[in-house]
Give the backbone structure.
Amino acid sequence: MRPGFAQAGRTRRPSLHDLVRERLKKMANDPSENDPGRNDPTGTDQSRKAQEKEAAAQASLRFVQEGQIVGLGTGTTATHFIKLLGERVKNGLKVRGIPTSERSRQLALSLGIPLTTLDEYQEIAVTVDGADEVDPQLRLIKGGGGALLREKIVASATRKLVIVADASKQVSRLGKFPLPVEVIKFAQELVAKKIAALGARVDLRLGTDGKPFLTDENNHILDCNFGEIDDVDGLARKLSDMPGVVEHGLFIGMASVVLFARGKEIVELRRGT
Ligand code: 5RP
């Protein structure tokens, strides 16, 4: 646990800005801090994952039907889906997309996928999105790409949420991946302290420019490392009850189908079956 948040009263607690400075110093001294391939020097793992992501995205296309409103997820796996959907649209498929982020919106526009909004349609037939972790009850951690708020809103309006992922995302218990929590800036120190008191190490997410990452809704993200979470539903309730938390990355009871690609095989899991 980050000492400053845990040991209230004895020394001055580092603020999130202290933590940002500390992280920047670490990155400057050790550039591999920010290198996703640092434990995979040959890149084999990364290229296997990339192939699995594309295979899972490919498998999700059969859930999309002519004339539907389709939620477009965010992240590298969802990007594969959007590109594949773009090809189908070029070949005549008629759908309208509702993107879960500005990035996905730009990508869909560049591919000629017609878009609409939640103002026009409050019911989405199918959404295809990625996830950072998926447990056996198909509960998810999402938000690694910073789009959890719009992703959850779109998911909540979706009849069938299809999650596409490489095999590494399948876990027996959630929490190894730090849980993203979107907070309004005004409350971030207070919320960080409250989440740390629940047992997490809390880091303010930084962008590639070293400044706090800004979501599409202009909020910040706290990455909360709980380790394996004992009571996922209880934690979700506690986070939702904290004033200043805009949304958290636990998606419970939302995914209908998860498509994991393991090598060339696609494993399909359905909720409640
Ligand atoms: C973005 C997300 C992504 O779906 C999640 O981070 C998975 O990303 P990727 O497909 O790149 O592994 O929740 O907010």
